[in-house]
Amino acid sequence: MGDTMEIRWHGRGGQGAKTGAFMLAESMIDQGKYAQGFPDYGPERMGAPIRGYNRISDEPIRVHSGVESPDMVVVLDSTLIATGGVTAGLKPQSILIVNSHEAPEKIKSELGVDGNRVFTVDATGIALAEMGRPIPNMPMIGALLKVSGLAEIDKMAAILTKKFEGKLSDEMVKGNVRALKRAHEEVREAK
Questions:
Q1: For the sheet containing 49-57, what is the strand order?
Q2: Which domain holds residue 64?
Q3: What digits encode the pLDDT tens for the residues 162-185?
């Protein structure tokens, strides 16, 4: 995937795409990497499509624009597949992780990306079960870590706990950690 990994997030306002991109960047910085995490808004309202971006590298990052040719695409809302934007700029080796209870083979067929690796995880279902809220960003980070190997899940759990302590209730922090780890285990790849 080259010297810099570029990730593009697709979600809707309120699903945590911006927070997910920020959290991933912060955790990579905490682990000695150079990283960026930033959003790209359309209409700023709940439910509106948004994109988030990450760049992660061992060297300083000099690019400060949206990700056009991602190494990885994280889709927080599978209804965005119909828009076609989630596959824009994909490279032959790009990886897609989609929040869906559907089989990854079905999503791969819907996306029409035969040469790419496609993964699914029911991040919304996991978030509801573990946190009581349909916010799929932390489960999607768990799946992303499993697929990419960027960081160990326990390191991310510790960073997440430290970041959210005092900001969220103890039970909500534990729920986020459970959701992160559960998605890490449940993510599935298309064959």
A1: 34-40, 49-57, 4-12, 72-75, 95-99, 117-121, 188-189
A2: 4-189
A3: 989 999 999 999 999 999 999 999
User: For residues 3 and 6, what is the distance between their CA atoms, to the nearest angstrom?
Assistant: 10
Q: Strand 95-99 vs strand 117-121: parallel, antiparallel, or unpaired?
A: parallel
Residue 74 is part of a domain; what is its CATH number? 3.40.920.10
| Neighbour-count burial for 18-55, b at 16+ CB within 10 Å, e otherwise | bbbbbbbbebbebeebbbbbbbbeeeeeeeebbbbbbb
pLDDT of 43 > 70? The answer is no
For residues 126 and 47, the model is more confident at 126
Q: How many domains does the structure of the chain reveal?
A: 1
